Amino acid sequence: MIRYALKCGDGHNFESWFQSAAAFDVLAERGHLACAVCGSGSVSKSLMAPRVAAEKAKSVPAKPSRDEMIAEIRREVEDNATYVGGDFVRTAREMHEGAQPSASIYGEANAREAHALVEEGIPVFPLPFKPKQKMQ
Hints:
- The protein is α+β, with helices and mostly antiparallel strands.
- It has helices at 21-29, 66-80, 88-97, 111-119; strands at residues 2-8, 13-18, 43-45, 82-85, 105-107.
- Strand 1 (2-8) and strand 2 form a beta hairpin.
- It is elongated and about 80 Å long.
């Protein structure tokens, strides 16, 4: 199979696959080619650069798995936020109201409590993991 960039007499550019270079020539000679955009029978090959894979493209790292991504999120949260456990809802409200200085925290809240925080304009985000059961 070979892919050609094609152009019709009206200037439309499109691509098409052919069994071989000879197959393209036979179809063109018999008038069996048509523009994919307008249907014109005046179709010719366009200049087309070959696809050559760059050396760097071969060394692209594999996409991390879901578990690896969750582990990375866990590391980031644990390294950059304070675990407040069951005091999360109270602490988040106090920070929002200015009673405590703002800081990055994580902890535990049930769905009803988290929804109430969101309705009050307090930004919260569910984590894709269960926090370790320890207070710092």
